[in-house]
Amino acid sequence: MAGCAAEPLPVPPMPPDLLVVPPSPGVPRENARFAGRWVGKWEGQLEHVLVVELQVQNDQTTEVIAVYSWGVSAELGVGSPGWTRVRGRIEEGALRLELTRVQATAVYTMQADGTLVGEYWRGDRVTSRARLARAPREGP
Question: Would the pTM of this model clear 0.85, i.e. be above it?
Fold first, then answer.
């Protein structure tokens, strides 16, 4: 209907036990920058929140636990919001999360301006891209 405001889309949900732990002392500074909450959109349409909850150094690799959360986008065929907690790693400047439930990989690289560029991989090709900014801290 003309003149009617569109209903707001659901916000990407978060788990009730969400907790960001500061990176352990052995995590290299360039990898520790990935810690925390990041917000953006896949293809400028699908709301996305990435929360890197925990980072631990293991030999040459920084292992992470992260929450990958999404909203809805009719254009991209995503009908309901959700979240998943996944394991990943930071190697050679890139954070890689294996989204095994949907057989995909999300790869994030830190940019000079402090944002993250995300690529959503299915098999050997990128199917979606995103730019994420660090979310402001919540609370006092």
Answer: yes
